[in-house]
Structures are given as structure tokens and as C-alpha cells.
Write the C-alpha cells for this entry.
Amino acid sequence: SEVRYRRLFETARDGILILNAETGQITDVNPFLIEMLGYSKSEFQGKRLWEIGAFIDARKSREAYQELQMNNYIRYEDLPLETKNGQRMEVEFVSNIYWVNNERVIQCNIRDISDRKQLERNLAFAATHDFLTGLPNRTLFNDHYILALAGAKRYHKKLAVMVLDIDCFKDIN
């Protein structure tokens, strides 16, 4: 059982941290997280999450630790982290508490979702902008028009819309 666990821990393609639940100190870190964030094992061990530069917001890290102590589970869909060399990344962070030999242990699973988040931003941009010119498209115009119209009504203001019609735009394009 220990050998299987150790093999899983060391070969996982997600970052894994093991912490002492009472002190919050990191007791183990898997090789993937070391590679992902660029910190050595010794730079992790014995420290708390908020003492490691990768966890950008120390106050929120402490708050998350307190929430974890109360609920035994936390999950962040997109937590910003920073690698040792300063590269920012977005991760999914899931942490829970369990018992091992009458001692509470925290396990944090950290998955890099930067590529997925960039794809989501690209898709959102493509849905609201012209592929060829990169200019806002009709969908984005309609969204902004509806908001502007509602704002004008709410604050009793006037709204003007100017339309430019370019003849033979396909030829120009």
C-alpha cells in the first residue's frame, strides 16, 4: 500500500503538497510541483503556503487555510500562482484533510489550467470580434448597445448611434 501510494504521489501529473494540519507546514511535495513552480524540495519543506512566493496573496492563503480547518475541504477554480522565475499561471486548487496514524494531514492537489483559460479567452474573443480584422462584431455591438440603452433610460440621458456604411467594403478589404 505504501509503495503504491508513493508511486502515485511521485508520478502524478498534478502538483501535490502534503501539510501537517496542525502547524500548516509542508511535509512533502511531489516532483511534478517542483518542476511546475521551479522551487526545490527544500524550499517547500517546513514552510507554510503563504511563505512560498508562488502563492501570490499571503492573506488569502491564510484565509484559505482557516477555511480548510473549518470545512476539511476547499476548492478554487482558478487560483493565480507565480513560478520562481516570475511566470504567472492559473491553477485549479483542491485541498482536503484526512487522518493518518491519528494525525491530521492536508493534501493539496494543484493542476495547471493556464492553457485551458487561454483557450477560453480566445474563444470569448472570437465570439465577439471579426476574425479577419480583429474589430468588434455585431454581437459585441448589440451587447454594448443594450447596456448603453438601459443606462440612458435609467439616467434619463440621450443616446446616439452613428452608422458608417462603406460601399464595396469587400473590395477594400
